[in-house]
Amino acid sequence: METKFKYTNSCTCRDYDDDTEETTEASECYGDCWEQTLEDFSNITSGLFEKNDTLWWKVSNFRLWDGNHNGFAYADSPIKLIQAMTVNSEWTIRGTIMDDHIEYSLSHHDAPTGSNTTLSIITEEEKEQWGLY
Fold first, then answer.
1. Where are the domains of the chain?
2. What is the model's pTM?
3. Are the beta carbons of 117 and 57 closer than 8 angstroms?
């Protein structure tokens, strides 16, 4: 099952419409939208966490000012996972949660048009092969 998402850390509050199954910008916002974002991200990534025994993740095609990069991240919580997927500045992320990975586009000051980034689970064998501890 695929789950689509879109978040920003500039904290635009969103409402979910059960009829259309879409999110819309909220008419009122009380400053708790980041907590709502984390709660939603936690819910939609719970299946990935259940499948990832190592809690190590591989990020591929992460766009920065000097090109695309690949790397690894240890994330044992949704907040750490979203931090591994983003940058330490203002950003917008949109993507799709798949059965065993996330495909997403991250827009930020170094990549205003976004990216084609993938976050995937690292297996125990890969963890040992790459010396991740």
1. 3-130
2. 0.80
3. no
pLDDT more than 70, % of the chain: 89
What are the pLDDT digits (tens) for 75-116?
A: 999 999 999 999 998 899 999 999 999 999 999 988 888 889
* The two three-digit tokens of residue 85, written as one number: 């997927």
List, as one string, the DSSP characters of the chain. Answer: --EEEEEETT---EEEETTTTEEEE-S---S-HHHHHHHHHHHHHHHHHHH-SS-EEEEEEEEETTEEEEEEEE-SSHHHHHHHHS-SS-EEEEEEE-SSEEEEEEEETTBTT---EEEEEPPHHHHHHHT--
Region 110-129: mean pLDDT is: 92
